[in-house]
UniProtKB/TrEMBL annotation:
Keyword Oxidoreductase: yes
Family the UniProt entry places it in: Belongs to the short-chain dehydrogenases/reductases (SDR) family.
Species of provenance: Brevundimonas nasdae
Top-level taxon: Bacteria
PANTHER family assigned: DEHYDROGENASE/REDUCTASE SDR FAMILY MEMBER 7B (PTHR44196), SHORT-CHAIN DEHYDROGENASE-RELATED (PTHR44196:SF2)
Record InterPro entries: SDR_fam
Protein's UniProt name: SDR family oxidoreductase
Amino acid sequence: MSRTVLITGASAGIGAALARTYAAQGWNLILTARREGPLQALADELTAAHPLTATVIPEDLSDPAAPERLVAAVTARGLTIDGLVNNAGFSRVTGFLATDLTAHRAMIQVMLTAPIELSRLLLPGMVERGFGRVLNVASLAGQMPATGGDTLYGPIKSFLIKASQGLHLETRGTGVHVTVLNPGYTLTEFHDVNGSRDQVSKAYPAWMWMDAARVARIGYDACEANRPSVTPGVMNNVMGGLARFLPDSMALNMVANHAKRLDRI
């Protein structure tokens, strides 16, 4: 039986890598992001390579009405969503006070509110059918103390981690799997968009970076195995583990030094 997955933020980076991973595993795709051109190019690439259907629905999740509008568009096409990948996101590294309130609202809407609303809209149908997959893309930053500069990013990802864990417990035994994926530094356009590419490239050696395709496959496999959480990479797991056990003052000093190296504060 063919399954269909909705992937947000699918136009580039980890989102596009996840689309390629799900396509390779035989899933039909519903791809959404703000930019229609890259979405359509990805859909054309994947339908040429695999026997699947790929539906493109451009949407801006910073609009509070977007989740309901997106689900309505899917329903109008007669499609059933068996999997949901909440991947859309961005960051602002210019500092809390130097960032416009509109951008803060957009971050919270795209990365916190929209994933929760989409999950609430789609999980009841998954539970009723006895099958579903929800993969929330958080970040290693959600396991670390918050940093200055990109002040809201880590806390938003921490929320998503905790919410995913709660949903994982709540859907046990229903046939629905909920997993949160916590990537560390990944080779994507993410740091180009937020303007930190030069800084992070200088601050961290090549061995700390992971390929988006590898991260996507780790996330996919973890969700299929119904793992509540997965953090790709040995070093990322070490750092996440240390952050839980270090005294608060030491951990905060550590991330403050990190921010200074990136010229964020």
